[in-house]
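Continuing the batch. This is chain 6 of the set; chains 1 through 5 are on the previous pages. Same settings as before, nothing changed between runs. Recording input and output for traceability.
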Amino acid sequence: MPRKHFRRFLPHRDAIRANRYMARLDTWGTWLHHPNLWHLNRGSVAGGVAIGLFAGMVPGPLQMLTAVLLAVPLKKNLPVALLTTFYTNPFTIVPLYLLAFGFGRFLLGAGHHPVVVEPYEWDWAHWIDSTEALMHWTLALGKPLAVGLAALALTLAAAGYFAVQLSWRVYVVLAWRARARRRRRG
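Output for chain 6:
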């Protein structure tokens, strides 16, 4: 991929080590200083995208923490993993959860009785009650949602990993061919 373009946005290893907040995390030893956490290579970026897509389906505000806790020990690109979690946002979370619910119902098969849940309506005048009602509504979705979230997270992670691997490979092959054409002309 165009590493030169993206490299200017990534922090340099020495800048990371010199950061006072990162120095506090030095209790993790050299874990945060592993080259794959910060460099752009095919395996690290593909793993970072997969981790970010997986962590993005984690409910609640734990998505970035999940991305960090997976990327650091697996030694995959940390900034890519963190940025990829942003595919879940207030505009995409409802369609993704509906997709996960449908996916979960599909995976559970015909033996699972469909859940009948009344549509949920938010009332800003009584937002505390609405938040509690939203939680009960979400829990009523139950097993299909839980199975669907896990399955969709794994599916998105696998698809993202292989998409990055394939696109990186295609880019490299096209660059090789372009370089060969330039050499033949010159």
